[in-house]
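Bit of a strange request maybe. I'm writing a small parser for structure token strings and I need a real example to test against, not something I typed by hand. Could someone generate the tokens for this chain?
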Amino acid sequence: MYPFIRAIFFLFPPEAVHYFSMNCLRLLCSIRPLRQLIKKIFLPSPSPTRLLGLSFQHVIGLAAGFDKNARYLRELDCLGFGHVEIGTVTPLAQEGNPKPRLFRLPADKALINRMGFNNDGVKQVADRLRSWRMSDKNATLIIGGNIGKNKITPNEEAWKDYEICFRALHPYVDYFVVNVSSPNTPGLRELQEKESLRKILTHLQVINQTLVIQRPILLKIAPDLNTEQLSDVVSLAIEIKLDGLVISNTTVGREGLQTDKALIEKIGAGGLSGKPLQQRSTEVLKYIAAQTRGKIPLIASGGVFTGKDAREKLEAGAVLVQVWTGFIYEGPSIVKKICKSLNT
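Reply from user aminoacidic:
Good idea to test on real output. This should exercise your parser:
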């Protein structure tokens, strides 16, 4: 059934279809009997795991970028996700890059995006999270807050943007992910340099320690870092006792694609996700797992479509796995199918 629906969806612009499909799902989930039916169809059998001081229903979650503004938490919960990372959220609302900025590569089971941290701003997202928390106080869905800086903020002041987002979202999310690795905000990846990272992360840790409840703080890294840069990230993470790493963001690489080169050139800049990212993200995961030796929890993201893909990430050293592009290509049953595969 879903391949037929996907074929129709793929006739229309990706970003418009994204919001259309999720708004349709929201309408269905607003009707209690239909919401219960959706849950019955898509919820996987629980396989609880404890990590970061949190109880996850299972190991499969949704990576940041899908629900940037925390609009669809009830709906994603109904589809069985164990955790959802909202964002990337910035202090001020911003429109992001000009459209079109999201492109499908069906021949490669991939996407290219240059969204540019389009979001409603941290105040509105925090208000939406507060309302969701109040409306469903028994919710078991774990929420991660992926935070970034505004495009207009110079890198030397980036730490201020991360602090603003951290303080605003702290009461409403279960953990944080610091995003300095998106390729779609000019100069952002320069913040992955060791001393820049140290300033941002240690500042957030100091704030965290002053609060009654401490939230885990993780860092999301790019798959395009070289070995020396990866080693710097690992040594810093161990030194400052970072709570975890998310591996990885999208790649700027275009190697080995089946899609016509002329079309790739026409699309232009952006982060590549999906199947072409799988091998590189797993290589980075294995390298960091070997370096950290279990001292730091690792969350894997990149090219996960099936239970086999998820198992590969777990065997490479991950403790949680996130999907995104796989969700687009495989459909709403992806979580249940992956969990069933992992449990057999």
